[in-house]
Amino acid sequence: MRTIERHREAVSALLTAALRPGEELLDLADAVASDCGDRVLAVDVAAAIDVPPFDNSQMDGYAIRSSDLMPGTAYPLTAEVPAGTVPRPLTAGCAAPIMTGAPMPPGADAVVPVEQTGAGFAEHAAHGTVSFPGPVAPGTFVRRRGSDIAAGSVLLPAGTVLGAAQLGALVAAGVSAVRVRALPRVALVTTGLELAPPGTALEAGRIHDSNSIMLAHALRRSGADVTVHGYHSDEPSAFLDLLSGLAATSDLLVTTGAVSRGTREVVREVLEGDAVTFDSVSMQPGGPQGLGRLHTPHGAVPVVCFPGNPVSAMVSFEMFLRPVLRRLTGRTPVDRQALTVPLAHPVDPLATKHQVRRGVLDAEGNAHVLGGAGSHLLTAYARSTVLIHLPAGPAPLTAGTSVDVWRIDD
Q1: How deeply is 274 buried, as exposed, middle or buried, from its count of CB atoms within 10 A (0-12, 13-18, 19+)?
Q2: Whole-structure pTM value
Q3: pLDDT by residue (tens digit) across 45-60?
Q4: Of 101, 234, 284, 380, which has the most beta carbons under 10 Å away?
Q5: Overall number of domains in the chain
Q6: 333 lies in some domain
Q7: For residue 372, how many other CB atoms are within 10 A of its CB?
């Protein structure tokens, strides 16, 4: 029986050697209408323009020459300066009504907020003048050109994950396209004669294929470009044809189901050999695992084979595939947040296998196991916020025993 550590190392070694994502150009104009979040920059990106690109007002108020300002003096008003316009130079001894974000008129070097003048724009406009309560320093309420970032400066370094703020900063700095790491192409194949596609009516003896939506989402969150394929048959030659066809356009094949030692284990029957091995890992759930390469006329493609029970498949993904994909695609953090916490109640471990149970932490930080150990209990998994690691051992774990947990509530 293979240890968890050994199988994790084997998965990491295989994928590190096989998955070498290149680069591609991400057009930010196209990205506005599509999901481009969480892409990873392949190279440093410099600002194309100064941000802001011109001196502008931080407030709704009056643009003035600070050297002109005398408390109590009435200053004639010039034309209003809305945002998005090009203002005329400010005449000495005058004040220009200016809106937030509008360019500073040439000659003006400060802004007095309208609320500091004792009246509103309409009242001042009716009199044609405005007065101010006191002197103002140059630069007051003025956003200077390039004060956020100067053109040519590194805006975001290579390896940055593009979230909402990063995408906004790129566009604001005049960047139209960036080079990002290409997403590894993963073909997810869920197997089982008993599986019915999500949302369809169930015939007798069939169950819904939850692995397809569950693992597809998890793979995409880890940086993969995923296609999903259901194989609802036990016929080996057709299954091999499917995998061989997918290998032409995939960097990695991930299968679920048909990996044990029962009858009609089509994944194992087709793939087991010199290039793909099937082992029992000392873990529950998720003991049966397959790993290797599928050799086709298109080349050798890595294959990772998970059990078919939903909880087994998800625990297998968390233990073996998620951290490798996140590392190879530049996502951080690579690993789940790990904590050591006390058990809230007694739990019986397995004598010879590491057990991964699902649960939650209470307000005091104690771990509560949800549901039983069965690998079909997906509802308990869906309600859980942590994976609870129980080391193999013969003795029951009492309440208060320290255990390691991984947070899965991101």
Answers
A1: exposed
A2: 0.85
A3: 999 999 999 999 999 9
A4: 284
A5: 4
A6: no
A7: 11
